[in-house]
Design brief:
Blueprint (H helix, E strand, L loop, with lengths): L1 H7 L18 H10 L8 H9 L14 H10 L12 H25 L10 E6 L10 E6 L2 H20 L16 H6 L1
Antiparallel strand pairs: 1-2
GO biological process, one term: DNA biosynthetic process
Organism: Parnassius mnemosyne (clouded apollo)
Protein name: Reverse transcriptase domain-containing protein
Length: 191
């Protein structure tokens, strides 16, 4: 559905260059704006109480170590070609897999076992993307985080386990369509 909307919308059907005024080209200005976008991250007490009182008491979630097969499957499924701040893109990782797969799997499993996410994998390149072809204000830009490839790999290994746990234990409401495989705008409209 969205591919059709994008094709006919003025934003998705761009044939020329996007015009960005010079006052919006200062990286520090853009960075400072993006830092402030999330705003206050304090959770209100009623939300905290709801989640605190609605925990599952009979199930336990533990992240388990990954097999080389699982890591291989995750790496081959990554579609983006962008490289993070380390300049390692997915093609480099895929080409080196015959030699590096046991090493990458070992690093991922060490991270899972120690419950430590490697610091270099926490850094992202932030790319400002215009929301429309005619950018006049800084709030017409949206930040895209480009993470290191190995960071994405670890996140997807853990995400697949967490998703399986949430689905198997029926924790997610049937009406939740966002961020779920096989669900989308159409299923949201049907519920």
């Amino acid at each position: 559905m969205w591919s059709h909307v994008k094709r006919v919308s003025p934003v998705g059907n761009q044939s020329g260059q996007i015009c960005v005024p010079s006052h919006l080209c200062n990286p520090d200005t853009i960075n400072n704006y993006f830092i402030e976008v999330p705003g206050d991250n304090k959770i209100d007490k009623s939300t905290f109480n709801y989640f605190n009182s609605n925990r599952l008491n009979n199930t336990e979630f533990n992240i388990t170590t990954a097999t080389e097969s699982e890591v291989y499957k995750v790496i081959t499924a990554i579609g983006t070609k962008a490289s993070g701040h380390d300049l390692i893109n997915i093609d480099m990782v895929r080409i080196s897999l015959p030699v590096t797969l046991p090493i990458i799997t070992g690093i991922i499993n060490e991270s899972i076992n120690t419950k430590i996410f490697p610091d270099p994998w926490k850094l992202a390149k932030i790319k400002p993307i215009p929301k429309s072809p005619n950018v006049q204000e800084i709030n017409n830009l949206r930040p895209i985080s480009i993470l290191p490839t190995l960071s994405k790999t670890l996140e997807r290994v853990v995400c697949s386990q967490l998703t399986r746990y949430l689905e198997d234990n029926h924790i997610l409401p049937e009406t939740q369509s966002g961020f779920r495989r096989g669900y989308g705008t159409e299923t949201a409209l049907l519920h």
